[in-house]
Amino acid sequence: MLTIGELATYAGVTVRAVRHYHAKGLLPEPERDSSGYRRYDAAAVVELVRIRTLADAGVPLSRVRELLSAGGDEFAAAVGEIDRRLRAEIRERQRHRERIALLAAGDSLALPPEAVAYLDRLRAVGVPEQMVEAERDAWILVAAHLPERMPFYMQVKEAQFDDPSIQQLYRELYDIRTWAPDDPRLDVVADRLVEQFEAVPDDAWDEGALPDDLAGLLDGVFLTSVPGAQRILARLESQGWTGWTNIRRVARVR
Fold it and tell me: For residue 7, which of 58, 85, 37 has the smallest C-alpha distance?
């Protein structure tokens, strides 16, 4: 006859586990002997080993009692069902690992590879990280609404970025966010933008336009983050252009 500690040792579990199995009704709890101890026989060891084996295999404790008393066919069917559940859990955990890998990958969490490459190019030419992050957040919005259009948009942006003046403008945009709303340098920036706009065929603006509601959301970010945004937009309009996200030619404002 064995004490609870000896039983646990024989079966390769802890005393706490034995008591837990008692509480769950999986392992009968013997009466105390005249000395006040509970004593276990060899049959208890065998039963405890079977319980431990099933639990270690991933069988929920709620089903262990059922399997302990099951016949051969019933046992095989139940094990097959448990195996399918475990495989489903493994697939789900693999998906979790893939999501964790995306989190570790930074920009690629919510952006396609071509957008990640574009952001890396911004960094490579010296665009401040704060501007890269702002650009990233904008493209996350676009990718969420128009994922099928992202390859086209990134192709357009990459082509624009072949122009050194565009690269310089991006490097300066972070500083522009610190300028006062009436800073005359804002007019110079707007005039440089007009030069860029004039070099683009008119039909290209319509081809690359975003839905108005999404464009309005992105315009709002520009208006709230750049104190001189209104002055830049007014200057653009005086030169025959309107918009920030969806740029369109209009009649000059005198």
Answer: 37
